[in-house]
Design a protein that fits this description.
alpha/beta; about 230 residues; 10 strands; four-stranded antiparallel β-sheet; 7 helices; about 30% strand
Length: about 230
């Protein structure tokens, strides 16, 4: 089943009299349950693509369909609602609310949407991610690795169609980076979570089932590893 489809995505920024082409005709399809890594050097366009896939930005041309919905046509309010319901976002900066417990941080997307949590699924996520004993703590009482686990749990709690991870190990040491990558793989396998990892880390990319390489706003390589 196709979860994501990009058709001829272009993104052009105007800088004075000049135009900067960040994306130049991206075609990409991702099936349910796939774990895809998108790699490229700084300035290659991978972060711009992430923002478009996450409905944070809109393409200058082309269509982006997630579960059949063309998110490139949504206005800002519609995009925010769609993102909250269908797209999980994990950044290298954890973006946890410092005054809320880890439990409330994880449940926040559902509370904002006035949806009743599935506490059986909640327990499964926090147990899988190894933070079941830290739920009443505040973010500053957790290590960086534990905060990233909480951020991943928050992105999974509403069962998104697609999880986007932007350099999720960028602020972590080698041990915690290894653990976070293992947890992302575990979420992909055990929860059948479709996942796209944006990274410049070749070792992290090798954990994915498929590696898409971007250069100068174009896909130059798309290879399945498994």
């Amino acid at each position: 089943m196709e979860i994501l489809k990009c058709e001829d995505i272009r993104k052009v920024y105007c800088s004075g009299r000049h135009q900067v082409i960040a994306l130049d005709g991206i075609d990409l399809s991702v099936e349910k349950g796939e774990f895809v890594a998108i790699v490229g050097a700084s300035g290659s366009g991978k972060s711009t693509l992430l923002h478009i896939l996450g409905s944070v930005d809109r393409p200058s041309q082309g269509r982006v369909l997630i579960e059949g919905t063309d998110i490139s046509t949504l206005n800002r309010t519609e995009a925010a609602i769609f993102r909250r319901r269908k797209v999980g976002l994990v950044y290298q900066f954890y973006n946890l609310i410092p005054t809320l417990t880890i439990r409330k941080n994880i449940l926040m997307p559902l509370l904002l949407d006035k949806r009743k949590p599935d506490f059986q699924f909640f327990d499964r996520i926090v147990t899988t991610l190894g933070i079941a004993d830290r739920l009443e703590a505040l973010p500053n009482q957790l290590s960086g690795g534990q905060q990233q686990r909480a951020a991943i749990a928050r992105s999974l709690i509403y069962r998104p169609a697609l999880l986007l991870a932007d350099e999720p190990t960028g602020n972590l040491d080698r041990k915690n980076s290894r653990e976070i990558m293992d947890l992302l793989k575990l979420s992909n396998r055990n929860l059948d979570q479709t996942m796209i990892l944006i990274t410049h880390d070749e070792k992290a990319a090798l954990e994915a089932d498929r590696i898409v390489t971007i250069e100068d706003g174009r896909i130059i390589r798309d290879e399945k590893r498994r």
